[in-house]
Amino acid sequence: xxxxxxxxxxxxAKLKGILYYxxxxxxxxxxxxxxxxxxLKAIAEYPEFPRYHLxxxxxxxxxxxxxxxxxxxxxxxxxxxxxxxxxxxLEFEISLYTFIDEEIGGLYMFDEFYKKYKEMSx
Length: 122
What we know:
By secondary structure, the chain is mainly α. The chain has 7 helices and 2 strands. The protein is globular and about 40 Å long. The chain has a single domain (about 1-120), classed as Serine Threonine Protein Phosphatase 5, Tetratricopeptide repeat (Alpha Horseshoe). The mean pLDDT is about 90. Helix 6 links the parallel strand 1 and strand 2. InterPro entries: TPR-like_helical_dom_sf. It comes from Exiguobacterium profundum. This is Tetratricopeptide repeat protein.
């Protein structure tokens, strides 16, 4: 336990956010009471990633806290850097960093997903 705390204290905000986001998904089905707190921690540590906000917004909407969910989705959409589609894919170098930004963070998003989230936020 002490070793894990030492590592957490050595992480930067982005890594802590990723860790908390991963913990949220780990507990999503087995311990759903931990999903929201871990997503809130992820947002507190690294609010730049849209996916944290979007997932929390979907969580609130699915639990009938519609207005709060819409607010988180709107906040998440503001943080999306760029949208793309299959006809015009983004041109960037594939690396661990772009994978994290796209797959974990959600900084880049398919147009169709952006539109669906936009509808959810209205």
